Predict the 3D structure of the following.
Amino acid sequence: MPEGSVGNSTFIEILANTSIHDVLLRYEIPKDTVHLVLLNGIYIEPEERETPIFSEGDVLALWPPVAGG
Amino acid sequence: MAWQKRVLRVDLTKGTCNEEPLNMEWAMQYLGQRGLASRYLAEEIDPKVDALSPENKLIMVTGPLTGTTASTGGRYSVVTKSPLTGAIACSNSGGFIGAEMKNAGWDMFIFEGKSEKPVYLHVENLKAQLLSADELWGKSVWETDEILHNVHQDPLAKIACVGRSAEQGCLYSGVINDLHRAAGRSGVGTVMASKQLKAVVVRGNLGVGNIENPKAFLTATAEAKKVLAENAVTAEGLPQMGTQVLMNVINEVGAMPTRNFKEVQFEGAHKISAEAMHEPRESDGKPNLVTNAACFGCTIACGRISTVDPKHYTIENKPEYMGASGGLEYESAWSLGSDTGVDDLDALTYANFICNEDGFDPISFGATVAAAMELFETGAITLKDTGGIEMRFGSAEALTKAAELTATGEGFGRDLGLGSKRLCEKYGKPELSMTVKGQEFPAYDPRGVQGMGLAYATSNRGACHLRGYTVSSEIMGVPVKTDPLSTEGKPELVKGFQDATAAVDSTGLCTFTTFAWTLEDIAPQVDAACEGNWTPESLLEAGERIWNLERKFNLDAGLTKEDDTLPKRLLKDAAKTGPAKGAVNRLDEMLPAYYEARGWTEEGEPKPDTLKRLNV
Ligand code: SF4
C-alpha cells in the first residue's frame, strides 16, 4: 500500500481524465492480478477500465481473484 | 467402485449394530453423501415424523471419493429431518472422520430409534459396538474428545460428537468432528442428542481400494490438483485469507446484512475482516490468525486457526481458551459480527470457540442474537427476559454472554436456543425473524444479490448459501459475471448452481473446489473411481434428481409453495446505502420462471413427467 494508507485504504488525487488502468499503472499493480474492480461498489467490466470514469469522491476497490462461502 | 458397499445400521432402541450391503442401485443414481443418504431417508422414514422422536433417523454418510487421493476427498454428511425447519437436513463437514469411516470399511452409519441411556458408537474397522456414555453426558465437545481419546488410548481415533447445547435441546446444534469441523446447520446435532447418542469414535486402517480404474484415477486426480494449484483463488486466496476475504468485498458491494438485516453495510467490517486477522495486535505483537489448516487430502487448506488476544476480557483467567483453535470463517464473522453490530474481533473469535466447544451453529446463533437485540431495542423483550443482559446491537459483552448461556442452555440461553423464528414468535414479533423455513440466513443480503434471494427462498434446507451459491457468479464472476442487481437469467442460474452443488455434495469432495473446478474437472475423477459412466451431464442430472427428491420429501412433510418466500423486510424495505440503495429483493419476478425451469407446477410441485424423467 502507498505511504499514508490506513489499513487497506488510501486517499489519492487524480486528474479528471484518468482511467482505472492509469491508476494501476501509477501504483505498479500488474493488470492481470486485478480481477474484481468495484467503483462505488459497482463492478466495472474489463473493457471499461481503459476509459476515464472517475468523479470527485469516488471509491475504487481492487481485489485479486477472491472467493469464499 | 470406490464405495465400500457396506452400511452399518445401528438400532439405538435395541442396542444393536448390524452390517448390510449398500444399495448399489441407489448409489448409481445418487452417488453418496447428500444424495444417497437422502434416498435412504426418504425410503425409511415418514417425512411427517417429529424430528426429535425416535422415528426420525440420522445418517452419517461418505461419498465415493471420500478417503481417496482426490484433493479435498475427506467429506462426509449428516442427513436427517431437521427440528429447526421440519424439512430434510443435510450438513456437510470436512476434517478427518469421513475418511476414517471409509478406511474402517463403511460407506454410511444409519442410526435409528432412541437409546434408553446415553451411548456412543465405537467402530474399529468392521467391529462396531455401542458403549455407555453416562460419563460423557453433560460434557462439552472438547472434553468428550479428550476423554474418548484417553479411554481408547488411541490418539489417532477420529471423533464426532455433540456438545451440551444439543443435550439441552438447542435447535441449531451441530455434530462437531475433529474438535472444530462441523456438520453445522439445521440442528443435525440436536437430533443426534435426542437419540441419546453422544459420540461416534472411528478407527480404520483397511484402506480405500475399490477404485475402478486406478491408473485413470491417478491421472484424473493429479490433473485436477494441478488446476487447483494454478488457480489464484484455490492456490492463494483461500489458503492465505480464508473465506473471510469476502468480508470487505461483500460490504463494498452493499450486500452485507447488518444489525438483523436493517442495513446492508457494516461500518465495522474492516475490523473483523481477513485483513484484520493478519494484523499484529498491541498486547503480544501476534496476529489473530496463527496458521491455515487443511481437511483430509485437501490441497487448498482454507481453514483458520486463531487465538484470542491474551489480554481480552473474554479469556481472563480462562487458560482453556488461550490456545489456538478453529478461527473465524466469513459466515461466522458475519453472523457473530455484522449481524449483531459487534466489531470486536476477539469477542467474535471467542464466541466462535464457544460454538465449537459446545457444538452449535454460529450462523443460526449469531442471527438469533441479532433478532434478540432487535427485540430488546424495540422493547419486545426486557432485562427480565434476558436475565439482566443488555441485548443491544454492538455489545460484545451481550454476544459473548449469550454464547456462554446457549452453550449450556441456561437462563436466556434457552430462549436463544429456540432459533430466531421461534424466539420472535414467542415474543409476538414474528416479522423480526430473518429466516426461510425457520432457518437463519447466511451472510449475503438478497437485496444486493438478487439471485441469492431466489436461492434462499427455494433452498431445500431453509436459508442457506451452500445450496446454490450464485454469489460466485453475481459478485466474483465465477464461472461468468452476472449483474447482482438484475433478476434476468437468475432462475436458470439458481437452478444450475443448485443441481451442480447437489452433485458435488454427493461425491465426497469439497464444494470450495468449484471456485477452480467445473464438473468437467470433477467428472473424470468420479468416472475413474466409480463403476458406471459419469460425465458432467450425468452428474448434473444426478444433482437435479437429488434436488427433486429433497423437494418431494419436503412437500410430503407438509411444506408448500408458501414456504418458498423471504421475510417481508427483504421484499418491502429497501436497502438504505450502497449500490443496492432503493432495492428490495424481487423474488416474485423470479419464482414462477424458476418453477417452470424446474419442470414443476405453478404450485411448486414436481410434475409427474419431471419425476419420471429423473427416475425419482
Ligand atoms: S477447501 Fe477448506 S473446507 Fe474444503 S476441504 Fe479444504 S480445508 Fe476443508
In short: Chain A has a mean pLDDT of 91. Helices of chain A lie at 20-26. The domain at 1-69 of chain A is CATH 3.10.20.30 (Ubiquitin-like (UB roll)).
